[in-house]
Amino acid sequence: MANNLVLTLSHCLVLLSYVAAILASPALKGHYISREPQLLDFPNERLYRAYLVIQRFKGTITSDPKNITSTWSGHDICSETAYLGFYCDTPGQAKILTVTAVVLNGYGLRAPTVEGFIDQLPDLAFFHAASNNFGIGVPLLAGLTYLYKLSVVANDIQPQVSGSAGAQGTFTAGRCLQATINLKFHFDTDPKKKSKRKGWGAIPGATDSKVLLLNYNDLSGQLPSNLGFSKVSYLALANNKLTGPIPSSISHLQDSLQEMLLLNNRLSGCLPHELGMLTNAVVLDAGMNQLTGPIPPSFSCLTSVEQLNLGSNRLYGEIPDSLCKLAAGPAGRLANLTLSSNYFTSVAPSCLRLIKDGVLNVKNNCIPGLANQRRPAECASFLSQPKTCPAATAVHAVCPASAPAPADRVVKDYSSYVTYATLHK
Ligand SMILES: *[C@@H]1O[C@H](CO)[C@@H](O)[C@H](O)[C@H]1NC(C)=O
Ligand SMILES: *[C@@H]1O[C@H](CO)[C@@H](O)[C@H](O)[C@H]1NC(C)=O
């Protein structure tokens, strides 16, 4: 009995080692198991990890009209001919080749979400995917450590993507950018070159930034409540179907946020006090939503803002003096304050001048004595509805300490803003 048992066991062992031998044999693997690239096929572990993330995302894509994802196979992620839409560079001190940019403009891809994709590529500096269909949600980018100095320069004459002089990346002649947007992206890892870039109009302060451009993507769901704990500088989510409030955590983007487009979604709730904490923001655009409430006094802290659009919402109350003062004098940077198609009922005296100068647009509101206002019945109907947002009682807001805005105010063309430029097709 005992002998038998031993024999059986040793048979098992032989069988087991035979199976192990089959699995380990490279020749057999090539024949019977599909040739999956292994860690050792990649220049480094980061690219192998990126490979796994890309393959997982590829598996969730349900529509690919241009057959783009057929190029997303094999181990050569950084090649010019494979992995269309992926770009590599050697950022930071480590100089390790890694995926730094994903540009999927106009590929018409459909996937339920980009969560688990772009937030899992830790060296990603730039994600641009206009006109795809990426379903639910905006991924939280807090986990990504951005290693670059990135400057994004509008260039109407010669649209192209250029590699940086310092890094030998493969972020070269834009295969897909050329047709869709007039922007020149310039990666530079050398801080000494900073001054050179000024000459061709780099946007200052865009260091340690992240760029997330997801206009026209059929995104639905709410903005993540912890959105503010990312380090995004350019956030463009225009023309989607996002719902719910602007999260109050947004104030934590105070240091990083330069431009934010929330234009044309279905955002609702009260205009948050915390938006006024974005003292470095140059563009804030939440037009064409269902936001309500008065303008919080904190908006007087927006000392860098040049374009402020809250048009076509359900805002009410007074257009405050402190807000209009952001456009006044040589230090005033506000060049376009769009508050049209709301339910404001009065306007501070300092704002009248701005209306005259074409800086402030208050058309289609409920302001007595001004031209082009809503019909009284329409105003009465809106104003009789219960109002639940906090009243704008405080006259002076406590503003966060911030670096003073640069003294030389330049009147910029609308399309010279990074996020607005990406709206043009
Ligand atoms: C997609 O591309 C692959 C590889 O180039 C090719 O084998 C396949 O037939 C293409 N499919 C379609 C639908 O064009
Ligand atoms: C001001 O902003 C609104 C809303 O973004 C835009 O439609 C308009 O063209 C802008 N005006 C100027 C002169 O830039």
Structural features, described:
This is non-specific serine/threonine protein kinase. It is an enzyme of class 2 (transferase). InterPro entries: Leu-rich_rpt (IPR001611), LRR_dom_sf (IPR032675), LRR_extensin-like_regulator (IPR051582). It catalyses: L-threonyl-[protein] + ATP = O-phospho-L-threonyl-[protein] + ADP + H(+); L-seryl-[protein] + ATP = O-phospho-L-seryl-[protein] + ADP + H(+). It is found in: Secreted. By secondary structure, the chain is an alpha/beta fold. It has a domain at 39-289 and 390-421: Leucine-rich repeat, LRR (right-handed beta-alpha superhelix) (Alpha-Beta Horseshoe), CATH 3.80.10.10. Helix content is 19%, strand content 17%. It is built from nine helices and 19 strands. The protein has helices spanning 2-24, 26-32, 45-60, 177-180, 194-199, 321-324, 349-357, 376-383, 418-421, and strands at 86-89, 98-103, 126-128, 149-154, 160-162, 183-188, 210-213, 220-222, 232-236, 241-244, 259-261, 266-267, 283-285, 292-293, 307-309, 314-319, 336-338, 343-347, 360-361. The strands form four sheets. The protein has a ten-stranded mixed β-sheet with strand order 1-2-3-7-9-11-13-15-17-19. Helix 4 links the parallel strand 5 (160-162) and strand 6 (183-188). It is elongated and about 75 Å long. The relative contact order is 0.09. The structure holds 2-acetamido-2-deoxy-beta-D-glucopyranose (2 copies).
